[in-house]
């Protein structure tokens, strides 16, 4: 008879894995939430810390950049040193940085704390998703778990605006950071109790040159796009930053081809599901980050909603997102992941186009409610099916890599999408003001370009998925491989 201790150790990842999923998903919720929860609080931060509009945009970017730039390294570190260990370390760092951000009394302090938050998120996010894929080896259970995971990511983006409004109005802007601390501590305790230790990977050297090249390249690219708004496309600073980004990212590819243990083996993209899923998540990240930033500013600066009202108006979007996320696994089973993702992206684009028609004196019920619901349905379906597609068919030894890659795609897409679409918005607004258009109408015209640009991202994503991920004897090729796995288990 096995000892009770042995039974407890073996049962923990099986009997309690759904409870463990809640803890892991809650950490992922915090990571995604923190990219959007500060949007509503930005005007209050700017007034108290004396930050201009350009600096305020960096409150978002300072978090997203290290998050996206270090995710691949974070995934590799978790494969090397153990997923649970890196997950807990990342959550602890995230909690400490959140507390520091809430205490900030200068812009430099706030931006530094946000950067540490992003770096900590880069540790915990890939480790968390890798733990999910390991805990749920059965294809059917994994589909359900990834459905929940994708839903959490979508809900976090939408709920950030809602919670940001409620917290800022009730307790002030520091509360949007302080709220992370008790939740993170709860996640750490739950992880220690519910998730068994996993063995570290092989003692291989880490690709630090590759990590440095890709991180610096991404930072230079986003910085170049951000400077376009102030200095233009042909300014020396913009051109130097863009040139540095090209050189660094090209160098990263060369490094990955030559090193023995690459940070990101390029062979992973031979898996068309991984390739298509990551391209889609890149575009989804760009569209959603720009959407929630522009929508929150539009509601407060043009429609003159206070923080509470702006947050509460996101309830229909968040509610639609939650409902469709619960139904998405059934839709995936019927249509396949490929078609489900493409359909969700087209629906997302339709809602964004509808939203772009809202005037400067928009009524919520007449102009915003309908588009919000359609957007929520599209975003919810896109996050669930996009996540499932991006991690399909990856070996356990590269689970951290694949998890880091899909998060990287989403976060870097968000940073680049926000930089590009914010620049287009400012250009459009200035053009309308120069023509004598009133400020509210000019701002509305600029935000309309953000929504239309985000819609273009979503449409391109749908086209990419349909073109890259091919059918293979079933609705999407993925369902067939799952069926083969199940047959192998039964035999």
Task: Tell me what the structure shows.
The protein is mostly helical and 491 residues long. It folds into 2 domains: 4-206 and 263-490, MFS general substrate transporter like domains (Growth Hormone, Chain: A); 207-262. The protein contains 19 helices and no strands. Helix 2 (17-36) runs antiparallel to helix 9. The protein is globular and about 65 Å long.
SSE blueprint and pairings:
Layout: H1 4-15, H2 17-36, H3 38-49, H4 53-81, H5 83-102, H6 107-135, H7 139-171, H8 175-178, H9 180-194, H10 208-231, H11 236-258, H12 272-302, H13 307-312, H14 315-335, H15 337-355, H16 364-390, H17 399-434, H18 439-468, H19 478-490
Give a nutshell description of this structure:
With 491 residues, this protein is an all-alpha fold. The protein has helices at 4-15, 17-36, 38-49, 53-81, 83-102, 107-135, 139-171, 175-178, 180-194, 208-231, 236-258, 272-302, 307-312, 315-335, 337-355, 364-390, 399-434, 439-468, 478-490. Residues 1-13 and 472-491 have low confidence and may be disordered.
């Amino acid at each position: 008879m096995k000892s009770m201790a042995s039974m407890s150790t073996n049962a923990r990842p099986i009997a309690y894995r759904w409870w463990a999923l809640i803890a892991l998903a809650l950490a992922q919720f915090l990571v995604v939430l923190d990219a959007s929860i500060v949007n509503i609080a930005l005007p209050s931060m700017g007034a108290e810390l004396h930050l201009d509009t350009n600096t305020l945009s960096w409150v978002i970017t300072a978090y997203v950049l290290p998050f996206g730039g270090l995710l691949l390294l974070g995934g590799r570190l978790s494969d090397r040193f153990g997923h649970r260990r890196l997950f807990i370390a990342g959550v602890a760092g995230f909690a400490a940085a959140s507390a520091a951000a809430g205490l900030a009394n200068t812009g430099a302090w706030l931006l530094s704390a946000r950067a540490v938050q992003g770096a900590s998120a880069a540790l915990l996010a890939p480790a968390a998703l890798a733990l999910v894929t390991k805990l749920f080896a059965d294809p059917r259970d994994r589909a359900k778990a990834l459905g929940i995971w994708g839903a959490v990511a979508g809900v976090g983006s939408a709920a950030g605006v809602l919670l940001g409004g409620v917290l800022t109005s009730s307790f002030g802007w520091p509360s949007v950071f302080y709220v992370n601390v008790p939740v993170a501590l709860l996640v750490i305790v739950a992880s220690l109790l519910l998730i068994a230790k996993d063995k570290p990977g092989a003692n291989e050297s880490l690709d630090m040159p590759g990590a440095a090249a890709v991180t610096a390249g991404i930072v230079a690219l986003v910085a170049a796009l951000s400077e376009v708004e102030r200095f233009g496309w042909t300014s020396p600073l913009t051109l130097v930053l863009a040139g540095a980004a090209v050189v660094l990212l090209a160098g990263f590819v060369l490094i990955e081809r030559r090193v023995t243990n690459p940070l990101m083996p390029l062979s992973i993209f031979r898996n068309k599901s991984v390739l298509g899923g990551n391209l889609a998540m890149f575009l989804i990240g760009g569209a959603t980050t720009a959407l929630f930033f522009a929508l929150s500013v539009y509601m407060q600066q043009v429609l003159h909603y206070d923080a509470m009202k702006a947050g509460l108006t996101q309830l229909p979007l968040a509610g639609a997102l939650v409902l469709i996320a619960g139904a998405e696994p059934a839709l995936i089973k019927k249509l396949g992941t490929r078609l489900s993702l493409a359909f969700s992206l087209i629906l997302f684009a339709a809602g964004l186009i509808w939203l772009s028609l809202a005037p400067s004196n928009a009524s919520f019920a007449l102009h915003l409610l309908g588009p919000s619901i359609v957007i929520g349905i599209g975003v919810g379906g896109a996050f669930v099916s996009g996540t499932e597609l991006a991690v399909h068919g990856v070996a356990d030894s590269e689970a951290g890599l694949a998890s880091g890659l899909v998060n990287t795609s989403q976060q870097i897409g968000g940073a680049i999408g926000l930089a590009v679409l914010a620049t287009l918005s400012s250009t459009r607004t200035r053009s309308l003001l120069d023509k004598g258009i009133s400020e509210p109408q000019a701002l509305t015209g600029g935000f309309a370009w953000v929504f239309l640009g985000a819609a273009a991202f979503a449409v391109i994503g749908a086209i990419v998925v349909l073109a890259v991920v091919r059918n293979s004897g079933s609705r999407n090729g993925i369902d067939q491989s799952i069926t083969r796995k199940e047959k192998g288990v039964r035999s």
